Amino acid sequence: MGKVVLVTGAARHLGGRFVRRIQRDPEVERVVAVDAVAPAHQLGAAEFVRADIRRPEIAKILAEHDVDTVVHLDVTGTALGGGGRTSVKETNVIGTMQLLGACQKSPRISRLVIKSSTSVYGSAPRDPAVFTETTSAKSLPSGGFAKDAVEVEGYVRGFARRRPDVAVCVLRFANILGPRIDSPLAEYLALPVLPTVLGYDPRLQFVHEDDVIDVLRLAAHEPRRATQNSGTFNVAGDGVLLLSQCARRLGRPTVPVLLPAVTWVGTALRTVGITDFAPEQIRLLTHGRVVSTVQTREVLGFSPRYSTAETFADFVRGRGPGLLPPEMLAGAVDRLAGRLAPAAAAPDAVAPGAAASPGAPVHPVHPVHDGA
Amino acid sequence: MADAKVIPFDDDRSRARRRPARADGEAAAVRALPGPQQGPEEPEGGREGPDGLPGAWGGREAGTGTRAEHEAEVAFGTSSEGGAEEGAGAGGWERRLAGGLAFLRRRITGDYEVDEFGYDEELTDQVLMSLLRPLYEKYFRVEVKGVENIPAEGGALIVANHSGTVPLDGLMMQVAVHDHHPAGRHLRLLAADLVFVLPIVNELARKAGHTLACAEDAERLLRAGEIVGVMPEGFKGIGKPFGERYKLQRFGRGGFVSTALRAGVPIVPCSIVGAEEIYPMIGNARTVARVLGFPYFPLTPTFPWLGPVGALPLPTKWTIQFGEPIPTDSYAPEAAEDPMLMFNLTDQVREQIQHTLYKLLVQRRSVFF
User: Fold this and answer.
1) How many other CB atoms are found less than 10 A from the CB of residue A127?
2) ipTM of this model?
3) In this predicted model, what pLDDT tens digit does every residue of A293-327 receive, in sequence order?
4) CATH number at residue B204
5) Choosing a second label site near A336 at 20 to 30 A (CA), which of A2, A363, B43, B172?
6) Cβ within 8 Å, pair A129-B98
7) Model-level pTM?
8) Domain of residue A113, CATH code
């Protein structure tokens, strides 16, 4: 008998992609896509139900469609198509509570997947450098999406206690990037000039949207042999990028701003509607955050295909070149090298970074003599 | 004069070690630092052996040729191939330029890697260490002993005394390991949380490979086979008044021992002499410290009275001695939960450092030379 999967937040880019992907899996019989607004994209053969998860009608939908797997993706930082912070928070928190209440009543539910975020760890200078799933945050997020995520996870833990028969999987995603994703961080990185916090160079981790879809599928199905897909898992690409590195790879100049002034700049940018500079966003861009993905690898059995750097490269390809494209800068350095030291520049251009190659201008002399 | 309160333990160990080491031994000592040829007796032996000891570094004034070579090698920054038999000819200059441009190219295009702690190895090797090296070589004239006690591979926890009002001793220890260890190991320091609160300082600290002094980070680094440096005295040690110099403070709660035990790595005690006198702290402006959020605000004979000039450290002569490693792999894993054993081991490490400090002080001719 096939599964019936209910996906919330289907009107978003990620939700839409997941709905289209999961219906192709052989073990899935039907997919029910739920969101408060009609999606702008195709959902394939999935059945779209326009419903607000903040209302009790979600229980009726679960019963009507005999849903056995719920994938809750409607935990997000930004509102879709307008709507302030209040409605986002309501959808995140009240929506999750309603959904969990409905799930608790439904005897058929056997699997629940929650999209959470690594922002539940907060970002503080006194935190350990790498967070594991069991690390408790030194400073709990005081507001914004991060606090929503903490609260959502709290309710999910309560649900898991009350319904031990349901496999609950909480996936804490690092910053999701991809060619088409729109998140506050992607919006920030799209600014022509990046305001940064003076004297801080945060460590960032990214996860590619393709990997997000894959890990969500892994969590929504039966666990593979020798793995377990209930529990809490950090999902992030391998490796770390510093914000300064990101800016250079993106080819965008940075403007360091004093920490107290950052809030003003953030407010100003938000007022003119360019980007959503929430306080937790500023904290991320100040102190950074790195999580350990050992659990995901060893218990969940998932290794992301894209590393943090590859994810970022893919994101850069999807964007236009910045004011200072890296290719242009590299070309400028090569020209400078050609002018200053013609002999040394040649091997440099062939193999930059190979320390052995600068010896080349000396050596070719000898073979010529030998041959003659 | 600073040796006033020293209790000489090993009286028979001569003070005569000052005679300059033989110049011909230099090349070998600087280039290929002695591996295991030294007997296991290091911490006890007076350190005047003219052969392979890294202490021979102290006599480097003797051989300028060696120094030039050494510098050329250093300028090329640790790339193992960089040390080819290149002199100071035009080829060397061009190579240096090409290397510099390649470095610049990688930096401005963001084409370099950092680890999960934010450690930027390339930047540390090429820039940060080069900035610290003049301070290390010319200003404090650091003499390193027993660097071969740091294992060539695998993790190890270096435990050192902390002093000097400003944590220059940690940085000098990092340069010492970086420049002198035969296997080219990198020291990863554990720093106080204050470091990661301050702007700019935190950025540089992370890039230099430092991380927050907490059990999680230390254990993660040790399990990854890194050399980790810790100064368990913390602010108690670095901010102690000048009158209490070279008296080790309490070693925290001994958390470093249990971390080393859990990771199964040896503990290398390290004694640093000379750092105590760089900023003789004669007073502590508590109110200013509280306002600024610092654990102490030092008053020295020159600071803050002379302004920025008064903030210059005194050019003392330093000695950094790495002692014989204390193995921890013979203990069962649950030993890390045994408080009595932890206290004993902590005391053992502390005693060994204190003992070596006294010995080095007895041997010291003067604070500045």
Assistant:
1) 25
2) 0.84
3) 999 999 999 999 999 999 999 999 888 777 888 88
4) 3.40.1130.10
5) A363
6) no
7) 0.80
8) 3.40.50.720
